[in-house]
Amino acid sequence: MTDASLPEGLRQDLAALLDDAGIRVDRPLVARMLQTALMLGIEHTGRLDLKIASSALSEMRDAFLLFQPFHEVPKVTVFGSARTRHDDPLYLQARDVAAALAADGWMVVTGAGPGIMQAAAEGAGARMSLGVSIRLPFEEKANSIVSEDAHVVSMKYFFTRKLMLMKESRGFICLPGGFGTLDEMFELLTLQQTGKAEPMPIVLLDADGGGFWDGLRRFVEDHMIPSGVISPDDLDRVLITDSVERAVSEVTGFWRNYHSLRWVGDRLVLRLVHEPTDAEIDGLNERFADMCAEGRIERSGPLPVETADDDAVDRPRLVLTLKQRAVGSLHTLIRALNQLPSAG
User: Fold this and answer.
1) Which one of 4, 54, 141, 313 has the lowest number of neighbouring Cβ atoms within 10 Å?
2) CA 261 to CA 271: how far, in whole Å?
3) pLDDT tens, residue by residue, 194-203
């Protein structure tokens, strides 16, 4: 059975329920969720599956409520080990990078646990910290930095937690950690490589003189690239550094000229902060012609669908028809846009 096979009487009852609740905005989406829930019951879905679906939706709602008041504030997520001790140089590095970003107006999102997560929350301070914790039998509760201002939401499932740690952020900093940290880091790289997430700055930050991430780079260069399982430039979108200053610059500088993107059919719209010159656009076409499936990179006003949605209509924009397999290399074009002389 599908949503379309929902009995007519139930569809009418559902419409009446939405009317009674006063739901007008995005009504079809709310109706779709309710239809899906009803179909799960009609199809005699197993109790465990129902518990998973119910808990996941409830957790996402709680997280949406936590993040909603800060929608306009730029956020950076900091990943790292829960086992890092307070006197570890990595702890100080996480605290310092979070403090620097918070001072620049960025909120810091963490997993709300001990170790690197607590260090980042300490650096940012309670007002500029958000936490998405996980309920585990052997880990501590949310650290006091995020919990004292109730800037924390607790999750049962790792997949809902990971969604919220990534969904709202415009930059990511990963410090050395274990399986969980590496899982989060590789998830970021996968989303970027496949184009399932918008291009974002990713920093792999180590302590001064540390070699943790250098080991990853060697593995990529010695094994993954030669075996053909990734492209030679897939790691180019990542900055590996032991400098707090470079980490901060990488995150904030990514948004120096690039503002946002939107797909309209097969056309990619890149919204900018500064209007590029004709000569700069010609230079971009010379450099990135192989990324275009057809035509050129062109200046454009807001497309009709953007105007209808009032979507960044005041921003200068460039439009191109991107080759499907070039989506993972968008970061190179964005970095070029940030380096244009017109960007100031």
Assistant:
1) 4
2) 6
3) 889 999 999 9
Residue with token string 């192989």: 290
Tokens of 289: 């012609």
Delimit the domains of the chain by residue range: 3-68, 70-253, 258-343
Largest CA distance in the chain: 68
> Which residue from 168, 162, 101 is spatially nearest to 133, judged by alpha carbons?
162
Euclidean distance between CA atoms 256 and 245, whole angstroms: 16
Q: Where is 237: in which H helix or E strand?
A: none
For residue 211, what are the contacts with CB-CB under 8 A and spacing of at least 6?
Answer: none
Using CA of residue 40, residue 46, residue 50, residue 56, what is the dihedral sign? negative
User: What are the structure tokens assigned to 283, written together?
Assistant: 């230079």
User: Which CATH number, 2.40.128, 3.40.50, 3.30.70, 3.40.1660, labels domain 258-343?
Assistant: 3.30.70
Judge whether residue 173 has pLDDT over 80.
yes
Rounded Cα distance, 101 and 79, in Å: 15
pLDDT exceeds cutoff 60 at 133: yes
Strand 107-110 to 129-134 pairing: parallel
What's the pTM value of the predicted model, to 2 decimals? 0.90
